[in-house]
Amino acid sequence: MKTLNKAAQSNITPAQAYELLRHGNERFVDNLRLHRNLLEQVNDTRDGQWPMAAIVSCMDSRTSAELIFDQGLGDIFSIRLAGAVISDNVLGSLEYACKVAGSKFIVVLGHSKCGAIKGACDMVQMGNLTGLLNKITPAVFAEKTITENRTSSNPAFVDAVTHLHTERSVQAILEQSHILREMILNGEVGIIGAMYDVETGVVTFQEETLVIGSEKFNTTPEAATV
Ligand SMILES: [Zn+2]
């Protein structure tokens, strides 16, 4: 597997970057990871990096973006915080990834059985964690479909809040970063929310959150060619 360089990165469209990530997770799930000489990739990237995508995900030890999308050194930016929360720092990192370093696609990746989401569901308060969980709380209140046992002991509630939190994070990026919004709306960059299942390794993309260009991206992912 070749390491990305400037030319390869500039030839990848947002739809193709999405496709590369989808295929990477399929390889991961099928245990068919590409062979990579990581030491060689260290050498390939010694003078710079040209990652095709940026993944915002949780710090959870089971959700390493490079592993679950079967990517190598220099392929993706990985921004990881408990609960995959969006903040000014995350927005700044994404703006760097896309505007300065040329990445073409953003994935906001939630995951099942997320401890941060569970903490927010239970209104946990503890030191600096309180402020972090407060960034998830709006999704807890916005979740209206489950009326009984709205706590972390109800997996359906935790899943519903996680789904909603991810959707709201995609929206927050579009609303709070004029740089990224402009790049997404003019088709230079794409964005989508997704969910990682810690029991199966499968990433399920939330197609309804996909935006590339000024219109919602309507073609099926299979239509993209790489
Ligand atoms: Zn988590």
TrEMBL record:
InterPro entries linked to this entry: Carbonic_anhydrase, Carbonic_anhydrase_sf
SUPFAM superfamilies: beta-carbonic anhydrase, cab
Binding site for Zn(2+): C58, D60, H111, C114
Gene3D superfamilies per UniProt: Carbonic anhydrase
Keyword set, alphabetical order: Metal-binding, Zinc
One Pfam family from the record: Pro_CA
Protein origin, superkingdom: Bacteria
Requisite cofactors: Zn(2+)
Cofactor: how and how many bound: Binds 1 zinc ion per subunit.
UniProt-recorded Gene Ontology molecular function terms: carbonate dehydratase activity; zinc ion binding
Signal peptide region: none
NCBIfam families registered for this protein in UniProt: PRK15219.1
Family: Belongs to the beta-class carbonic anhydrase family.
Annotated protein name in UniProt: Carbonic anhydrase
The organism of origin for this protein: Chitinophaga pinensis (strain ATCC 43595 / DSM 2588 / LMG 13176 / NBRC 15968 / NCIMB 11800 / UQM 2034)
